[in-house]
Amino acid sequence: MREMTRRAVLMKIACTTAACLSDLPVRSLRPLLADEGQVTEAEREAMARAAQTFMGRFAAPALSVAIARNGRIVYEQPFGRVDRDGDEPLRTSNLFRIASVTKPITSAAIFHLVDQGRIALSGKIFGTGGILGTEYGTSPYGRYVAEITVDHLLTHTCGGWQNDSSDPMFRFREMNHAQLIGWTLDHLPVLNPPGTNYAYSNFGYCVLGRVIERVSGQIYAGYVQREILPAFGISDMRTSGNTRKERAANEVVYFGQNEDPYGMNVARMDSHGGWLATAMDLACFAGRVTGYGTAPALLKRETIAKMVSPGPASSPSAEVKYARGWSVRNDGKGNWWHNGSLPGTTSIMVRTASGFSWAALCSTRRQPSDEINLALDNLVWEMVRKVSAWGL
Question: What predicted TM-score, i.e. pTM, was given to this entire model?
Answer without folding.
Answer: 0.90
